[in-house]
Amino acid sequence: MPKQIPCLWFDGAAEEAAAHYTSIFPNSSIGEVTRYGPGMPMPEGTAMTVGFTLDGQEYTALNGGPQFPFTEAVSFQIMCRDQEEADHYWTRLTDGGEESMCGWLKDRFGVSWQVVPTELTSLLSDPDPGRARRATEAMLQMRRIDIEEIKRAADGVSA
Which of 40, 62, 69, 141 is deepest in the core (most CB within 10 A)? Predict the structure, then answer.
């Protein structure tokens, strides 16, 4: 399969977004930046595209204008090894953004993310239907995922 590089459409904040994201994710960097020239749709010198990499995944940020704002119809999942890692991403990405439900958030640029401790998947799909139901019910009450609280709920233990 050919390489896939998500392209994110911004209204003037492509460089700022790329700098913000590369400050959050390890092994990240900003690559090539192309700029608008004279007579183009944005002011001369404004970044047109910004190539950046987040922990090995390439992205392109495009300053395309206000025509296409972000919606929750597309989000990026961050599968975290533990609660500490999940809390890191949650805290950094909600800074200037807004929390939603079940581990979802919108960052300060309007991009939607899901911050998910990997253990959550096994709890929600537990072979014991009662454990899975209790885990799901607990998760549905949360904004930031608290994996220990979900484990207690799955086990039927009150907080």
Answer: 62
